[in-house]
Design a protein that fits this description.
Helix content of chain A: over 70%
Strand content of chain A: under 5%
Largest sheet of chain A: none
Low-confidence stretches of chain A: none
Order of helices and strands of chain A: HHHHHHHH
Oligomer: homodimer
Chain lengths: 227, 227
């Protein structure tokens, strides 16, 4: 009986999923979104400072990619890193980051139940995608040849993780998601779709740049050999 | 009661997982391994023919990578493609490919239960990794600038999929795996570890090649501008 009471005393879906150590958040929805928005805004400002101090003149496109990569690095390393280290106790923690995860979890309760796929995928995202996003930021600022491998690796890992993440929930009939449009569209779709669309664009962008670069390199090398 | 009888009438782990439409394979273990081995040998021979007809003189390393990529493409597209299209009915099918999957499933029953993560990951592997492995084969044969983007994309997708695949089973205490060393080490570890080790090497290989190529391209472009 106690198990059943524990199982239903939370607002997440599926409603019978056990989250025994759940405690309510201190931040409400608007405070959570404002906190996340402020953090993202802070990263955008930091990107602006880095762009201002760059030795190279960056194109408008490169500036936007730098902002994207720095925002991604921040989210991956801080927010998703926090999840990765605390997933087992997250539902009962009283921290701002736990509040943010409890808010997002309305759109996916797997974040509060240590779902194996979610934990591994988020661990990879935090450590691997986060690090390579920083390398991409460095690559853009320093006009380094490492930029496109880093951009390609970050974007492909993001795309793969996000496709698996969204598609597994789809295959289970979105049972982990509160069906309210605010949570389904506002959180689950809108907060994940950018990591499908933008990485796809950046993968194509990097492939094109690498193709052109490798072609120039091949020609330069064969010209040198012919001389 | 019927459910319980259905649930235990198969040799897979966890032993109580329901595989109601399970039928036994016609091929035994050695016949299954011989069939798989013959298919791989066929792909190696095909690689040899392609290498023999290549216009470029390929290095020993490139020949080995070509063989690897063609073997991967075959496994991804045919074997994993078959799984992706038939996962729902695989356990009850009477085909050679279904026999191979029933044999492998001793090391992971998720292949016979339409496990959402496994189905999505295999779908991506069959379509995406399989296609890019073929592009990598073409890239090596034609000495095309697309070779390293394709090699990098294929290898990163393989690595990501396989890490998630192995790690999710680990996180669940290898409950999907028959603990017999033949199945745990012989199948689960030995048949998956190559897709961790070799892609990691090939990712580093491609990053190095792209870095060198982009550096030459940068210098060639700036020399041209200076002239």
């Amino acid at each position: 009986m106690e198990d059943i009471i524990n199982a239903i005393q939370h607002p997440y879906f599926p409603q019978d999923t056990p989250i025994p150590h759940y405690v309510a958040s201190k931040l409400d929805m608007s405070q959570s979104l404002l906190t996340l928005g402020s953090a993202v805004a802070g990263l955008v400002v930091l990107s602006g400072i880095l762009i201002g101090r760059a030795r190279n003149a960056l194109s408008c496109k490169d500036k936007l990619i730098l902002v994207w990569m720095l925002v991604c690095a921040g989210i991956h390393i801080v927010l998703e890193g926090y999840f990765s280290f605390n997933h087992g106790t997250l539902a009962g923690k009283s921290t701002v980051l736990a509040d943010l995860w409890r808010e997002y979890a309305h759109s996916d309760s797997r974040y509060l139940t240590s779902d194996p796929f979610t934990v591994i995928m988020e661990g990879i995202t935090a450590v691997f995608d986060g690090s390579f996003a920083l390398v991409a930021v460095y690559g853009i600022l320093a006009d380094s040849p490492i930029r496109h491998p880093a951009q390609l690796i970050t974007s492909l890992a993001q795309l793969y993780g996000d496709v698996l993440y969204m598609a597994t929930n789809y295959m289970e009939g979105f049972k982990y998601t509160n069906p309210h449009p605010m949570y389904f569209y506002g959180y689950f779709v809108l907060m994940n779709l950018p990591w499908i669309v933008i990485p796809t664009y950046l993968i194509v962008d990097s492939c094109k740049s690498i193709y052109r670069g490798m072609l120039i390199a091949q020609r330069a090398t064969s010209t040198k050999k012919a001389e």
